Amino acid sequence: MNIMRALLGGLLVAPTAAWYVDVHNQIGFMAEKFLNKHATSVIQDILEPQYNGSIGRAAAWADAYAHTHEGRYSYNWHFIDTEDDPPSNCTLNYAEDCSSKGCVVSAIQNQTNILKGCIEDVYNGSLRGGINMICSYALKWVVHFIGDITQPLHASGLALGGNRFNVTFGNITTNLHSVWDGHIVYLDANVTQFSNASIAPFFEKLVSRIYHKDDFVEPRHEWLSCSDPSTPLTCALHWAHESNMWNCRYVYSQIHNNVDLASSGYAVGAFPIVELQISKAALRLGTWLNKLVGEVMFRPRNQKILKNDHISPRL
Ligand SMILES: *[C@@H]1O[C@H](CO)[C@@H](O)[C@H](O)[C@H]1NC(C)=O
Ligand SMILES: *[C@@H]1O[C@H](CO)[C@@H](O)[C@H](O)[C@H]1NC(C)=O
Ligand SMILES: *[C@@H]1O[C@H](CO)[C@@H](O)[C@H](O)[C@H]1NC(C)=O
Ligand SMILES: *[C@@H]1O[C@H](CO)[C@@H](O)[C@H](O)[C@H]1NC(C)=O
Ligand SMILES: *[C@@H]1O[C@H](CO)[C@@H](O)[C@H](O)[C@H]1NC(C)=O
Ligand SMILES: *[C@@H]1O[C@H](CO)[C@@H](O)[C@H](O)[C@H]1NC(C)=O
Ligand SMILES: *[C@@H]1O[C@H](CO)[C@@H](O)[C@H](O)[C@H]1NC(C)=O
Ligand SMILES: *[C@@H]1O[C@H](CO)[C@@H](O)[C@H](O)[C@H]1NC(C)=O
């Protein structure tokens, strides 16, 4: 238990937590670029019609839902509160850190398993037109949480994931969590917000870099070192560990008192990290959904519908 945690431990309500709504939408629109046609078609059957088959449009639902009375139970599924002490100690201990109400790691496991059953339902003809809310929710949660888990402060318990860590950014007082959820991305893209209806140029460029350049601070092949949806707990833990490490490698180690993070060099130093983490989220999400659909398609009784298509993104 560190001092910050002791001071903050008594605070009850955590403010909203997640990549900003529009950033979530954009991660979803990026992921759509990696989906094969089978996954695209299955998604159309699972999502409610209002999303028009777009995981980009559906990607932010989970935050709104967590803030309703009905959806309050899912609030803890958006993060994992580690008990470590960045920047000197970044440690994630699943057994201790995942709350009894769940966490982003257990939620990815649970909803992925539910989603697999839903894909079965699509293939055997019992699910079409987004009529099963358990299935639509499972897909929307998987889409959202594979985004959340790459945000370093969603794998950190210090100061409630940085929500209670006040900072100045571009002359406004905000908190470190918000800075990583959105402010850094907006500054990097030089915009004040992104579309909720289609992919924005900043994210289109990331997709193009993923396909053609592989010039990120970690090589692309490592992003998918764990990406098998039949081991969702292992992969989600791997992803959370990786995000947690950024809190020691950058998020808390490069913070200096009383500077404006937008102009001090902090934000510019964070750009490559944010670009990496967002790109990872999108590629993993597309790959995860392709593989889930592929697993179901390759079951012997489903093979009659199988065509000779790629299951993984063509990179
Ligand atoms: C719904 O998606 C289809 C296929 O992607 C597209 O052609 C159509 O314009 C979309 N409709 C709306 C209302 O966005
Ligand atoms: C790091 O934090 C974890 C979790 O609180 C703790 O178990 C571990 O002993 C700490 N390691 C060091 C080197 O302080
Ligand atoms: C798994 O998801 C179902 C459906 O949303 C939910 O009722 C259940 O509590 C979840 N279980 C865990 C361990 O998260
Ligand atoms: C389709 O598959 C699901 C999941 O395996 C099963 O519960 C359901 O009964 C099946 N429906 C039909 C029509 O075969
Ligand atoms: C952080 O900011 C919030 C909201 O602006 C304020 O209520 C709180 O007192 C500040 N905390 C510290 C430690 O300055
Ligand atoms: C912050 O305020 C200073 C002094 O008023 C001004 O020079 C600077 O341009 C402002 N920066 C931003 C990002 O608004
Ligand atoms: C950022 O956008 C503004 C207007 O939207 C433009 O004037 C400015 O040149 C842009 N800055 C950079 C660094 O691209
Ligand atoms: C998208 O943004 C528009 C304009 O701000 C808004 O009217 C609409 O409700 C938003 N759609 C969703 C799904 O949030």
Automatic annotation (TrEMBL):
Q: What is this protein called?
A: Phospholipase C/P1 nuclease
- The residues forming the signal peptide are 1-18
Show the CDD domains listed in the entry: S1-P1_nuclease
**Gene Ontology molecular function:** endonuclease activity; hydrolase activity, acting on ester bonds; metal ion binding; nucleic acid binding
- Family note: Belongs to the nuclease type I family.
Q: Return the Pfam families for the record.
A: S1-P1_nuclease (PF02265)
Q: Which UniProt keywords apply?
A: Disulfide bond, Endonuclease, Glycoprotein, Hydrolase, Metal-binding, Nuclease, Signal
Glycoprotein in keyword set: yes
Q: Does the keyword Membrane apply?
A: no
Q: Which domain of life is it from?
A: Eukaryota
What Gene Ontology biological process does one annotation of this record name? DNA catabolic process
Q: Which InterPro entries match?
A: PLipase_C/P1_nuclease_dom_sf, S1/P1nuclease
| Transmembrane parts of this sequence | none
